[in-house]
Structures are given as structure tokens and as C-alpha cells.
Amino acid sequence: MAKKIAIVNQKGGVGKSTTAINLGAGISDLEKKVLLVDVDPQGNATSGVGLEKSELKHSIYDALINDKPLIDIIQPTGHNNFFILPANIDLAGAEIELVSLMSRESRLKNRIKEVDSDYDYIFFDCPPSLGLLTLNALTAADQLVVPIQCEYYALEGLGQLMQTIELVQSNLNPALRLLGVVLTMNDVRTNLSSQVIEEVKKYFGKDVFNTIIPRNVRLSEAPSFGEPIVSYDPKSRGAKAYKELAKEVIERE
Amino acid sequence: MAKKIAIVNQKGGVGKSTTAINLGAGISDLEKKVLLVDVDPQGNATSGVGLEKSELKHSIYDALINDKPLIDIIQPTGHNNFFILPANIDLAGAEIELVSLMSRESRLKNRIKEVDSDYDYIFFDCPPSLGLLTLNALTAADQLVVPIQCEYYALEGLGQLMQTIELVQSNLNPALRLLGVVLTMNDVRTNLSSQVIEEVKKYFGKDVFNTIIPRNVRLSEAPSFGEPIVSYDPKSRGAKAYKELAKEVIERE
Ligand SMILES: Nc1ncnc2c1ncn2[C@@H]1O[C@H](COP(=O)(O)OP(=O)(O)OP(=O)(O)O)[C@@H](O)[C@H]1O
Ligand SMILES: Nc1ncnc2c1ncn2[C@@H]1O[C@H](COP(=O)(O)OP(=O)(O)OP(=O)(O)O)[C@@H](O)[C@H]1O
Ligand SMILES: [Mg+2]
Ligand SMILES: [Mg+2]
Questions:
Q1: Residues flanking ligand 2, CB < 6 Å
Q2: CA-to-CA distance for A192 and A198, rounded, in angstroms?
Q3: Among A125, A220, A225, A236, which would you mutate to test the B interface (most chain B Cβ atoms within 10 Å of its Cβ)?
């Protein structure tokens, strides 16, 4: 049975896709078989691991709406032990089509069962909203990781996120629990970053991962080569941080 | 009749709220009366101009769902000539409640008519999605400004955004036109930024504003003081860039 982890925060641009790809690849380097599920119509996780979205024959849309078997959609990434259930723009239509379907929040959960025993870890990269796609990921997952940018606005949406998680726990998925909060894009040169870090640690206490991801341009270059940071630039500060985070996630299990 | 400009991009964290606040304040400094409409349930524009969201008696939710007069909701910001129609978490409910209402995409457009003649410019800060709230802003506006971050993923969603704009133009708002694309968070030290700028100029040609907003930590500090950059740190590179952009927007009219 795979450990299923949703990467979620409705605030935009906080490092969800970057964390899903690089934490996923970091864990696959520790002899674990990992599936990355792209639940965002933007498909950044899909292109970030090197797939060409316009050439996809099938995508997660076909799993959610057309009942296509997952094994016909899942593809290998270029990284060992690391696979992806890709997304493209079709998924934007699914959010509307799901509204009228039976058990609309549980469609992803029911489909993931087909491959649950094939993987050690399954990660879900969520879009920047708390709509039906994110709810599907929160229902399919048993744990969640929340990336929080070291920026002032990052603190604003946390209450809303926690409220939504509690609603999911009481209505859709009682087993869901917070695995941890990861601070991202830390710029050690600014006071703002250290102030935000202090606030987040006050709010979340021991739920904050010890590993803090630094702002590192190599992390934003890697997706243009379609590679996780651990293969694009293994000696970079970004790669070291995500390797540390991968170890910490496995230890927290 | 006010010029109505939506700030839109479904990619998260690209600088929509930062542009809405600082372009708005920059234009209000040029003897124009400006209203900022916060259409994002996260309410970053609302807190970014210094309002306390938990203390709001009324918000844009009451205008969209409860037909409350706008003049009872709009508040002054601390900045001269600059007003806000604030948002709070209630707005997250509106996205669901709007689905079943008559002319659900035009509710904001119909309400804005009440104050159209009171302002020279009305800006709409959109959430990072292309759902009903963003559609309301695109239907109420007559022009749009698209912030694009100087990052690889920034190029990915542009096709989807242009597709949505065309759908809005043919079904909801034929007058809607692109005022311009503004490049944000430009880090002059990295090759990545200059590559993205080159790509965006190739794709959008003369629709790209000459003013490029640099990455500047003062811009991310300003919201924690509830002030636009032009009053928080008028000599900063961020303030100079948004003053330039304000002049360019007025000239392009
Ligand atoms: N630690 C980092 N250092 C530098 N750049 C980063 C870092 N993490 C992410 N980025 C860059 O910042 C941008 C936002 O990150 P990313 O796209 O992963 O966020 P997201 O939360 O998935 O965004 P969205 O809300 O649109 O899904 C991207 O261009 C990414 O390459
Ligand atoms: N030019 C800049 N330089 C440095 N930081 C910036 C700049 N522009 C915006 N920021 C910061 O980057 C983060 C993202 O910007 P902002 O919140 O304005 O983006 P957004 O597109 O409105 O995000 P969302 O998609 O969540 O609505 C914020 O913390 C903001 O303070
Ligand atoms: Mg993402
Ligand atoms: Mg915003």
C-alpha cells in the first residue's frame, strides 16, 4: 500500500510543483518507487519532468472522466523509479464536468486504488485553488505537505487552508493528516524571510520540517530542461535541500 | 465612465496583487481617482492596502450575492484618491453560489455600473484560476493587463489564458481587449530571466509594456505595512518601476 501525499496550498506560486517534482525524485533516489500525479490543468509537474503536454495521448482527464485504466496513462519520467500520471489543458474541463457526477470528490481516490500496490509513494501536485480538483487529491491522499513561501502574503491563506482540511477530514477523508509544512524560497539576506519563518514555527510548531528550501535559481532553471534538481544540478543548494527533505519525510512516516 | 482593467493570469504567484495595488496607487498619484476591486477570496489586495479582513462589515461577497449597494462597501485606502472594494474568505463561497444564479458571469459587471462615473480607473485583482470569479472580472472589464513572471513556468499557461479571453470576447464581453503584458520579478543576474523576456516579446510583440518590474524585496515587504510601494519606499527600484508603468498605462489609453 503506497503512502499517498498531497502537496497543497491555494496561494499561488509558493513552490507546490517544484516540491512535488523534487521531493518525489529525492525519494525515488532512496530506492522507493514513486508516482507523481499532476492534478493541475497548468501541467507544470508534467512538463517539469520532461514530458511534452501537447503530445500526450492520454492524461489524468481520461482517468477522471472516461474511466481509462491508469496503467495506460502513466509514463516513466527520465528519472529512475519515478513515474508520472500527466495532466494537460483538458483537465480544466474536468472541474466543470465533475460537478454533476456521482461521488465527484472521490473519483481520483477510486482510480488510484488500481495502482496503489505498485508504488511506495504517490504524490499529488494540486492547483492554486480549493475547488473540486484539489478536493479530489485531498480525498485520495492520506497525508499532506503544505509548502509555504517565506513571504508576507504566505501567512494570509493558512486559516482558509486549515478550515478546508478540517471539512475534508469530517466529510470525505477522516484519515487525512498533516505530514508537515515546508518553508520555501527562503532568502537568507532578507529580514522578511526570517520574520515569516518565526511566525510559521509559532503557528505550526513541530509540524514544520527542519529542512528549509532556499531561494536558488537552479531550481527555477531545472524545469526548462525537464529534469528534477537532483539530476540537473546535484551539487546545488536546491538539490541538497530537497535531498534532506526526502530523508526527513521518510523518517516522519 | 471609468476605464476598467482586469489584472489576470491563472498561474499563481506572478505578481497580480502586487501589480493591482502598485499600478493602482501609481495612477492615483497622477490625479486620477482609482477603485481597486479585490476578486480573490485570499484577499491579498485588501490586506496589502492596509485593511484588516477580519474586521470588514461588508465585502464584495455582499455585492455579488446580497445586492448590497457598493457605496456601503467601498472603503478608502490610506493612499490619496485610491479606494478599495475589499474581499475576505466569504468570497470563496460565492464561486459555488454563483453557479446557479441568473447571468452569473455578469453580476459584477452589473454592480460596477453603480460607481462607474465616480472613478477614472477601476482595477480588478483576480484569483489564480479561470473560474466564475475571474470570468466576472473579465466580463466587467473593458481591458486587461497580464503580469508574467520571468520564470520558465510562466510561459506554459499563456495559451490557456488567451483561449479563455477569446471565449469571453465571443460569449460575454466583445469589447474586452488586451491593454498589455507586464514582465515581473525580473532578476537581472540570471540568464533565465532574459530568456523568458525574449520569448514573451516574441509571442506578444508590441503588447509588452516597455517597463519591466525588477525583483525587489521592498515590494514584498510593503504589504506587511499595508502600504503601496510608492509610499512605503518611494526611492526603491520597485516604486520607480510601477511609477513608470502607471505613466505607460495612461499613455496607451
Ligand atoms: N526554492 C526556489 N528558488 C527559486 N525559485 C523557485 C523555488 N521554488 C520554486 N521556484 C520557482 O518559483 C516559481 C513558482 O514555483 P511553483 O511553480 O513550483 O509554485 P506553485 O505553487 O506550484 O505555483 P502554482 O500556484 O501556479 O501551481 C516557479 O517559476 C519555480 O521555478
Ligand atoms: N517584483 C517583485 N519583487 C519581489 N517580490 C515580489 C515582486 N512582485 C511580487 N512579489 C512577491 O511575490 C509574491 C507573489 O506576488 P503576488 O502575491 O502579487 O502574486 P499573485 O499573482 O497575486 O499571486 P496569487 O496567484 O496567489 O494571487 C508575493 O509575496 C509578493 O510580495
Ligand atoms: Mg504548481
Ligand atoms: Mg494575488
A1: A 11-13, 128, 151, 153; B 12-18, 40, 44, 127-128, 184-185, 213, 215-216, 219-220, 223, 238
A2: 10
A3: A220
Report which protein residue has its CA nearest ligand 2's atom 11. Answer: B220
For the stretch A110-146, pLDDT in tens is 999 999 999 999 999 999 999 999 999 999 999 999 9
**SS3 assignment, position A199:** helix
Across the interface, do B153 and A17 touch by the CB < 8 Å criterion? Answer: yes
CA distance B240 to B247: 11
Closest CB to B223 among A152, A190, A195: A152
CA distance B102 to B107: 9
Closest chain A residue to the Cα of B225, Cα to Cα: A152
d(CA A213, CA A193): 12
pLDDT of residue B96: 85
Give me the phi and psi of B146, to 5 degrees please: -110, 110
Please list the residues that pair with A82 across neighbouring strands: A34
Report the alpha-carbon distance of residue B24 to residue B19 in Å, rounded. 8
> Which candidate from B14, B43, B152 shows the least CB-CB separation from A220?
B152
Which residues, including other chains, have CB under 8 Å from residue B33's CB and lie 6 or more apart? B81, B83, B118, B119, B120, B121
Whether B253 shows a pLDDT value over 80: the answer reads: no
Could you please report the per-residue DSSP string of A31-49?
A: T--EEEEE--TT-HHHHHT
Cβ atoms of A208 and A180 within 8 Å: the answer is: yes
3-state secondary structure at position A119 = coil
Cβ–Cβ of A220/B151 closer than 8 Å? yes
pLDDT band at B156 (very low <50, low <70, confident <90, very high): confident
Nearest ligand, CA A151? 2
Cα B193 to averaged position of ligand 2 atoms, centre (Å): 16
Query: Looking at the DSSP assignment, which residues form a beta bridge with residue B182?
Result: B147
| Contact call for B130 and A157, based on CB within 8 A | no
- Residues of chain B positioned with their CB less than 8 A from the CB of A131: 95, 129, 131
Give the length of chain B. 253
For residues B235 and B243, what is the distance between their CA atoms, to the nearest angstrom? 11
The burial class, CB within 10 Å (0-12 / 13-18 / 19+), for B203 is middle
> Cβ of A67: how many Cβ atoms within 10 Å?
10
Element (H, E) at B151: none
